[in-house]
Structures are given as C-alpha cells and as structure tokens.
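Re: 1,3-dihydroxyacetonephosphate structure - here you go.
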Amino acid sequence: MLVNAAEMLKKAQAGHYAVGQFNINNLEWTKSILETAQKLNSPVILGVSMGAGKYMTGYKTVAAMVKAMDESLGITVPVALHLDHGDYDACYACIKAGFTSIMFDGSHLPFEENFAKTTELVSVSHKLGLSIEAEVGAIGGEEDGVVGMGECADPEECKKIADLGVDFLAAGIGNIHGVYPANWPGLSFDTLAAIKAKTGDMPLVLHGGTGIPDDQITKAISLGVSKINVNTECQIVFAEATRKYIEAGKDQQGKGFDPRKLLKPGAEAICAKVEEKIRLFGSVDKA
Ligand code: 13P
C-alpha cells in the first residue's frame, strides 16, 4: 500500500522503533524489499537516489514500477516511495512523477538558502500529500559523487528547519555513507541528544546505516532516531552472493545463465539483509 512516510514515522517515534529505508536500484531490489517487509508485517521506505533514478531511466519509470509491483504482489503494509538526497529540481521531478515522499538535501548550501528552499518545498509537498525530509549538517562519505565530511549538525539550525514543518529530519551526528573507516570514532550521541532536546517529537533520520554496530543503532533509536537508511550493505551482500554463484560455475550448469537464476542468490541475500535490519530496528508487526 503506497503512502507517504509521515504517519509511519510519527508512529515509530512514539513507539520507540525505527522504520528502514532501503535504497532500490532495479526490479530485483524492489521486489526483495517489498516481499520482506510484507513477510514481517513491517512498514518500509524505498529510497531512490538521483543516480539510481537516472539508472532506472527516470523517476517516472521508478514510480510506475513500484506502484504496479506493490499492487501485483498484493502488498498491504505501508510503503513510501522516497527520493533520497534530492536537489531542488529532483524534488519537483519526483513530485511530478508520483513519488509519495521526498528528501530535499540542502545541507551543502548556505543555511539561508537551505531554509528558503526547504520552506517552499514543504508547502508544495504538503499541498500534494507528500511527506518531506530535510537535512542539516552534511552526512559524510560519498553518495552519487557528493562527498560530505561527516560533520555534526548544529542543534539550533535543526530546530529552525524542524519548525518549518518538515515531516522528518536528517541531522549529521558523525555518520558517513558507505563502509566506515577503521578509525571512525562512532556516532556522536551527545549531538543526537542535543538535537532531540531542541526538536521534540520530530522523527530523526540516521543516514549511513551500513556498518554501524548494532548497539549504536539501538542507542540511536532510544535517543529519537525513527528512520534508518541502508544502501551499501545490500549492494555488498548482493555482489557477494552473485560472485559465489559464478565462482562455483553455476552459471555454466544447465540454464544457470538465465538471468532469473543468476540474479536469484543476490536477491535472496538482499531479503536476508533487509530482514536482519527490520528485526534490529524493531518494526516487525508495526504495519
Ligand atoms: P549506506 O550506503 O551507508 O548504507 O547509507 C545509505 C543512506 O544513507 C542513503 O541515504
């Protein structure tokens, strides 16, 4: 059931669990995530980066695929189709294409410009029934060629953006996209607590979910994180399972080269990873 993400994250915030955002890249990714969320009776957010949107030939294709698949698989759990780290133009393109949720990432802009553009996009998306995520304090690592430094957001700026009426807020707390370096100091829980104290009931978003130790995830949820984004970890397990299949020579046995067979171990690996995360985030049976 396609919905915006506002209600599911309000419930998560009140219930002290988090909803997973899993990024999609193609049909297999989408199907694996939807089927796993349905199996676990959990709400779920499908994240689409600008790069992945382009890869799938555009947001219109993505929206059409997700809507049709949601229907044909008989998905009854709440599913949000969400633009991940969108720029201003991408937000409008996704609104037009039929996404149910957008993220405007103005974190690299001067604060006044982030504030002004977020204000406008909150008004437009709410008028049309979409939910909107904003970002303060760039998330580190590399995503679609944009490199952030893993800074910690200023709690005052978080409050100003939260007060604009965004539905959920991504705030840097030392998190980084991609695999964490060995010398990563861990999440800044002091920053998270300070942001929470300023933003009240606002559901907070933790980006860079890949590789954050389970105890830090659990602590972040207890301090007010209601949405956790995972991308790289699904890519890694997909690649590992596919490599194993090919290295075992299975693509050369019978019709093992059939894409439906070749991509199956990777798709199953994504299902297992998404299940592990949904259980860790505590959203089982919260649909
Ligand atoms: P990872 O790729 O580190 O899991 O981060 C995902 C993310 O934050 C998407 O916005």
